[in-house]
Amino acid sequence: MQTINEIKEEIYPIFEPIIGTIRLKTYFSYYAVFKDGLMIALYQNGATYLRIAKKDIEYIRQYPKTCILCDEKIGIQSRKFHYIPQVLIDDTPKFSSLLFGIIEELRTEKYKISQKRATQIRNLPNMNLKLERMLKKIGIHSIHDFTQEGYMSTFIKLILQGFDVTEDLLFKLNGALNHQYIYTFTDQQKRELMQEANQALYNSGLRKRFNAL
C-alpha cells in the first residue's frame, strides 16, 4: 500500500506546475484534488479523473480514450468526472485549458450560490424553509422584501391572510431582522414585543391577541 507521500509525488506534478498549490483528501477509494476549496479531480491507482466544465464536454468526448467515471460507490457524482489519458495530461496547453475551465466554472457556481443564499429568508436567524414559503404567500420573496416590510407589518399581513400565528412567530420575525435568536430574548423584550403587537393589531382594526402584563 502506498504512503501518502508517495501519492503526493504522483499527483502534485500533474497539477501544481499549472494551477499552483492543491490539497488532497481521501474520497471513498480515491484521492480528491482540491483547488481553493473546489474539488476538481479524483485520482486512483495512477488514473486521473478530471471534472469537466460544461463548455468542454463535447471536446473531451471526442478525445481518444477519455470516458466518464462510473463508480457505484460514488453514485451519480462520479459521472461528473472523466478519465484523462496520460497523452492529454502531457499536452500542457490542452490540459491547462481543461483545468482552468473547470476552476472558473466552479468558482462561478459557488459565487451564484452565495449570492442566492444572501437573499433567502430561510438563512436568517430563527427562519426556515417553511416560514420562507409562508412569507412568499404574502408577497415577501427575499430578505430585501422582508426588511422593507418590517417584522410587525409582516406579522399583521400573516394574520390578515388567515395564518394561525403565535407569539413565537412574532419573536422569530423580530429576531430574524435584528439578527437575534429567540432563545436569547429576555422576558422584558418579549413583553414589549407583545405590547407593540397588540397596539399594531388595534390600529389595524384587529383584536388584541396577547396578555403582555
From TrEMBL:
<feature type="domain" description="TfoX C-terminal">
    <location>
        <begin position="119"/>
        <end position="196"/>
    </location>
</feature>
<dbReference type="InterPro" id="IPR047525">
    <property type="entry name" value="TfoX-like"/>
</dbReference>
<protein>
    <submittedName>
        <fullName>Regulator of competence-specific genes</fullName>
    </submittedName>
</protein>
<dbReference type="InterPro" id="IPR007076">
    <property type="entry name" value="TfoX_N"/>
</dbReference>
<dbReference type="Pfam" id="PF04994">
    <property type="entry name" value="TfoX_C"/>
</dbReference>
<dbReference type="InterPro" id="IPR007077">
    <property type="entry name" value="TfoX_C"/>
</dbReference>
<dbReference type="Pfam" id="PF04993">
    <property type="entry name" value="TfoX_N"/>
</dbReference>
<feature type="domain" description="TfoX N-terminal">
    <location>
        <begin position="17"/>
        <end position="97"/>
    </location>
</feature>
